[in-house]
Design a protein that fits this description.
Layout: E1 6-11, E2 29-30, E3 33-34, H1 35-45, E4 51-56, H2 61-70, E5 76-81, H3 86-100, E6 107-112, H4 120-133, E7 136-141, E8 146-148, E9 157-159, E10 165-174, H5 175-187, H6 196-202, E11 210-212, H7 223-236
Parallel strand pairs: 1-4, 1-6, 4-5, 7-11
Antiparallel strand pairs: 2-3, 6-10, 7-10, 8-9
Helix pairs in contact: 3-5
Length: about 240
């Protein structure tokens, strides 16, 4: 397996409206430290991650710099202004990297700041799968069947769990692939997508290769998620 330069692109530009909190969820404190710092520390610890790039809204940039410095994150290589959506924020980060990276085969792991329990194994698997197969999408088998609904109150069909997987982040691609995806999106008039991997699906980039995820790599979305996260953190002490 060839050696690669590996960059974590952490998206921290969300407003966290579903959390109904005073702060965006990535900046909420858990045990005296922000969720963002917990997430960044996972990439800081990994020996194959060379640099961390953060995407956040400009008004939080000073906080982010101070928080990561306080937490000993010395792999921080830059902070990029967020866009109006997660998709736009990812685009800003990709464009930033494209403008300064000399190797188009640099591996980029695009990760949600609000998945602070990402493991070292998930990071390792993403890099390995991307290097050997061309891309990596963190995924887990589905243990439940799904109801298909238009309005959230009734359903007239189901999706069986067999053959379904739940996507997590990171979504990992060579930088050249990511820049090509953004160019294709522009050509086809795609201005938004739920994530990098859904954009890849819309553009017909296949196959997408799965890097095994972890149940603990869940996304902090609503208040009960914070309670679960606090409980899990207390078990580590």
């Amino acid at each position: 397996m060839r050696q690669s330069r590996n960059i974590a692109l952490i998206l921290a530009g969300g407003t966290g409206e579903r959390m109904h909190a005073a702060l965006p969820k990535q900046f909420m404190e858990i045990d005296g430290e922000s969720v963002l710092l917990h997430t960044a520390r996972a990439f800081q610890r990994h020996p194959l991650i060379h640099e961390i790039i953060l995407v956040c809204t400009p008004e939080w940039e000073a906080f982010v710099k101070a928080e990561l410095e306080r937490g000993g994150i010395d792999k921080l290589g830059g902070i990029v202004g967020a866009g109006e959506s997660s998709f736009a924020s990812a685009r800003h980060g990709i464009e930033y990297l494209a403008a300064r990276e000399t190797d188009p085969e640099t591996i980029v792991l695009v990760h949600d700041a609000v998945r602070p329990l990402i493991t070292q194994d998930i990071i390792s698997r993403n890099i390995a799968v991307c290097l050997t197969r061309g891309n990596a999408i963190t995924g887990l088998p589905s243990y439940e069947a799904y109801l298909v609904t238009a309005d959230g109150s009734s359903s007239d069909s189901i999706l069986p769990r067999e053959g379904l997987m739940r996507a997590q982040t990171p979504h990992t691609f060579p930088l050249a692939t990511l820049t090509g995806m953004m160019r294709l999106a522009d050509e086809r008039g795609i201005r938004a997508s739920q994530s990098i991997f859904t954009l890849a699906g819309e553009l017909g980039i296949a196959p997408l290769h799965i890097a095994q995820g972890d149940l603990l790599n869940f996304k902090l979305t609503e208040q009960p998620d914070i309670l679960i996260y606090r409980a899990l953190k207390s078990l580590e002490e």
